[in-house]
Amino acid sequence: MKTNACVSSLAEVSLESAKWKLKFISAYFRRKDANAALLSNFEVFQLLTDLKQQRKESGKNKQSSGQQNLNTIMYETLKYISKTPCRYQSPETVKDFLVAMKGHKLTKAEKLQLLNHRPVTAVEIQLMVEESEERLTEEQIESLLQTVTSILPGDPEEQRRDSEMATEDKGDQV
Amino acid sequence: MFVLVEMTDTVRIPPWQFERKLNESIAEELNKKLANKVVYNVGLCICLYDITKLEDSYIFPGDGASHTKVHFRYVVFHPFLDEILIGQIKSCSQDGVHVSLGFFDDIVIPPESLQQPAKFDEAEQVWVWEYETEEGAHDLYMDTGEEIRFRVVDETFVDTSPTGPSSAEASTSNATEEVQKKEAPYTLVGSISEPGLGLLSWWTNS
């Protein structure tokens, strides 16, 4: 009878561990504003590269049987994020960007999208900013584009090509 | 695209791992349990962000392993409604265009959310946007492997946890005839019916 009691308490323990309580830090799905727990692609990129570095350093003596899922998801996510503009970003650029965005009155979700995608055309801005025709005039959209492209680094090759073309034009004018 | 989710769970550490630091064992167990898995109504779990609180570890009679209640934060892929994402076209079918992000595959853009007018080319199995200009109609093909910008309009979570044994008659009829259709636990529905959405090559001004 004592053994029965042990077995039943063990069953309770395993049931307890089988369900875990989930708590969102803030609002649920439908509210895309004021979601304090949003992560930018850059933060996830940093986290995954650091994790990869750590795992490489600690050597391959760990059993990789259970780690396959983690390896797969890390590899795929890093591959995806590396193709986005956030690979050129640094914590300073992100901070400068957020400071510069203060004047434009955008929601958190909109700023996050601008940070992740680095739009270069007005069409993209209209996609990411809700009701942009009513909230932003054309000059404001232009200045927003200017801020985004100047603060957030883009593809260095493209930027070199653009600056080369600019100097060529200057040469023609003179 | 990614959110941080606070979770609580009890982690079991077997005795042969007692020599390792507790935090490391717990981090490894949590990643083993959750990485690359979809949690119902939460999203696709990527990796552990940090451990916020460790409660006392207990050893229960009959099991030599230690059980620790852990409060931690996990990085989860869960795009918010109306978010713009860029993915690759995986394939096209009558149901629409299937898009993949590499780490997440179950995104579909149904035919009514494509740039209109669109038609399905049966021969090549691709969707085509019949773009009209003054010169005439251009056929813009949505080929596999092309990068596509789309907006998330809906998400569906399906509980794929195993149910109990089905009733006697259901099992005898199903067993031989059909294979149980495997439902993806988390699917996204996208839309490209706005200016700026669709293949990136359609909107770049070079």
From TrEMBL, chain B:
Role this protein plays: DNA-dependent RNA polymerase catalyzes the transcription of DNA into RNA using the four ribonucleoside triphosphates as substrates. Specific peripheric component of RNA polymerase III (Pol III) which synthesizes small non-coding RNAs including 5S rRNA, snRNAs, tRNAs and miRNAs from at least 500 distinct genomic loci. With CRCP/RPC9 forms a mobile stalk that protrudes from Pol III core and functions primarily in transcription initiation. Pol III plays a key role in sensing and limiting infection by intracellular bacteria and DNA viruses. DNA-dependent RNA polymerase which catalyzes the transcription of DNA into RNA using the four ribonucleoside triphosphates as substrates.
One GO BP: innate immune response
Presence of keyword Nucleus: yes
Species of origin: Opisthocomus hoazin
Pfam families: RNA_pol_Rbc25, SHS2_Rpb7-N
CDD domains tied to this protein: RNAP_III_Rpc25_N
A GO molecular-function descriptor: DNA-directed RNA polymerase activity
Extent of Low complexity compositional bias: 166-177
Annotated protein name in UniProt: DNA-directed RNA polymerase subunit
Similarity section: Belongs to the eukaryotic RPB7/RPC8 RNA polymerase subunit family.
Ranges for region Disordered: 159-179
Localization annotation: Nucleus
InterPro entries in alphabetical order: NA-bd_OB-fold, RNA_pol_III_Rbc25, RNA_pol_Rpb7-like_N_sf, RNAP_E/RPC8, Rpb7-like, Rpb7-like_N
RNA polymerase III subunit Rpc25 domain boundaries: 83-203
Residue span, RNA polymerase Rpb7-like N-terminal domain: 8-64
Coiled-coil annotated residue ranges, if any: none
Superkingdom of origin: Eukaryota
Alphabetical keyword list: Antiviral defense, DNA-directed RNA polymerase, Immunity, Innate immunity, Nucleus, Transcription
